[in-house]
Amino acid sequence: MTDTRVDVLIAGTGAAGLRAALAARMAGAERVLVVSKTESGVANCSGIAWGGLSGAVGGADTDHYASVLAEYSEGIAQPELARKLAEASGPALEELVSLGVESQVHRAHLTVSARPRHPGEGLTLPLLRRCREAGVEFAEPAMLVHLLRDAQGCRGAMVLDLVSGDYCRVLAGATILATGGFAGLYARNDNPAGTAGDGLALGLLAGARAIDLEFATVFELGLAEEGCPQDGCYFGPAVSAGVVTDDSGLPLDRAQRDEHWRDASLGVERRDGRYDLWLDLTQVTPEQWLEEKLALVRREILLDLPVSERPVRVSPLAHFTPGGLMIDERARTAVPGLFAAGEVAGGVFGAGRPGGGALTDAIVFGAVAGREAAEYAARTPRADTPAPTESLPSLSSAPAARPPSQVLSEIGWALWNYVSLWRNGPGLEACLAWLRALEPPASAGPVAELRALHEARLGRFVAQAVTRAALLREETRGRHHRRTDYPEPDAAWQRNIIWRVNEDGELAHEVV
Question: Are residues 195 and 340 in the same domain?
Answer without folding.
Answer: yes
